[in-house]
Specification:
10 helices; 241 residues; 4 strands
Length: 241
């Protein structure tokens, strides 16, 4: 497949917009940041931020920032790095932060640093990178990973799908590896070959809209040439597996 976006100005304009927008965003939401930091310090285990190594630009690892939503040793408990809906490792405050996606806000700091962009492929755990095919690995992080992206939009309720598969008595890790990763990889390949300022702004709009209508399928109507969504990634399809 030939990459459709060939503008040499695209990465320059995008980085400039990301930097200005993230700095402005930090100034606007700083009061909310302070409130959340105080609440997290006084609840749960007193942790405020959670740093986790993820794969980044040009396949170089970096540490992503999030608000702490789980117990300190959660990576060694339960399903380890895989989280299901109503996971007992999630704190009470953390559950609200995860549902509203507010736990992702500290990644604005990653954008300022240049580790991430506002729009791009989601950065995954370094050890999970091998789950992508070589074709996906080759192109996915030629763009900076993003706070949101085409994969984030479509897998907004990823935890719900994994939980439904687990409820049938199956291994949720196997579902992720067999069904989730292949389609995520296809989506990120699509983004690499179609990324542009117009596509990025559409994804940004759809991200804000999903906060109001989380179950909307508007993303498929907006981008009509997206890879078809497998039935196995729907609640009805999971029942047939």
């Amino acid at each position: 497949m030939v990459k459709t976006n060939n503008s040499p100005l695209y990465p320059i304009i995008k980085r400039t917009f990301d930097l200005l927008a993230s700095i402005l965003g930090l100034l606007v939401i700083s009061p909310l940041f302070l409130v959340i930091m105080v609440v997290l310090k006084l609840t749960g285990e007193g942790e405020i931020f959670y740093l986790q190594e993820r794969m980044g630009l040009h396949n170089k690892p970096f540490f992503i920032y999030k608000f702490a939503t789980m117990l300190k040793d959660s990576a060694n408990m339960g399903h380890k790095t895989l989280t299901v809906r109503n996971d007992p490792r999630i704190t009470k405050v953390g559950r609200l932060l995860r549902i509203t996606k507010i736990n992702e806000l500290p990644q604005i700091l990653n954008v300022v640093k240049g580790d991430m962009a506002l729009i791009g492929p989601r950065p995954i755990l370094v050890k999970n990178f091998a789950s992508y095919t070589p074709e996906v690995q080759e192109v996915i992080y030629k763009n900076r990973p993003g706070i949101t992206g085409i994969g984030s939009l479509i897998f907004r309720d990823e935890e719900l799908l994994v939980t439904a598969y687990k409820a049938n008595g199956n291994n949720p890790s196997e579902y992720y590896k067999t069904y989730v990763f292949p389609y995520k990889g296809a989506l990120e390949q699509w983004y690499y070959h179609h990324c542009s300022l117009a596509v990025d702004f559409k994804i940004l709009f759809l991200t804000f809209r999903s906060l109001v209508k989380p179950n909307s399928e508007l993303v498929y109507k907006t981008f009509k040439n997206l890879p078809a969504k497998p039935e196995s990634l729907t609640l009805s399809g999971i029942k047939k597996l």
